[in-house]
Amino acid sequence: MKTPSKSGYAKRTQKDYSLSFKxxxxxxxxxxxxxxLSAHLKYGIQARSTITQWLRKYGTFDxxxxxxxxxxxxPEQQIIxxxxxxxxxxxQKARAEYLAERADKKVIIFDMLVEMAEKEYDISIRKxxxxxxxxxxxxxxxxx
Length: 144
What we know:
The protein is about 65% helix and about 0% strand. By secondary structure, the protein is mostly helical. Among the domains are: about 20-60; about 75-130. The longest helix is centred in the C-terminal third of the chain and has 47 residues, at about 75-120. The protein is elongated and about 95 Å long. The relative contact order is 0.05.
C-alpha cells in the first residue's frame, strides 16, 4: 500500500489481495470446500461482495447466462398449498367477523349509555342537526 504523499493520495482502507490468493479462494468456493461467508470469515476479507466479484471475474460459473429454474409443483403439492391458504383465509374471516360483532356490541352499549346519561341528567348529549343547518355547516367548511 502506498503512503500519503504531497499530491493528496490517501492511504487505501481496503486490503490488496494478490491474484494467486483470489484464485485460491475462488477455487475453494467452487470445489465446495468453503462457502462465501466461510471464506469471508476465514480469510478476513472485508466485504462478502468482494468474493462475489472474484467469482464472477475468475470463476468457471457462467454468470452471464444465469437462468433461474423453477420446479413445477405436483398437483398434490398444489392441493396442499391451496388447503393451507383456505384454512388461513377461514381463520382471518372468523377473526374479522368476531371483531365486527364486537364493534356492533360496543356501538349498542355506547348508545345505551348515552341514552341513560341523557335521561339521568336531563341533557342532550347527541347533536341533532336540522337539514338546513347541516347544509349551511357543509358550505362553510368548504369555504375554509
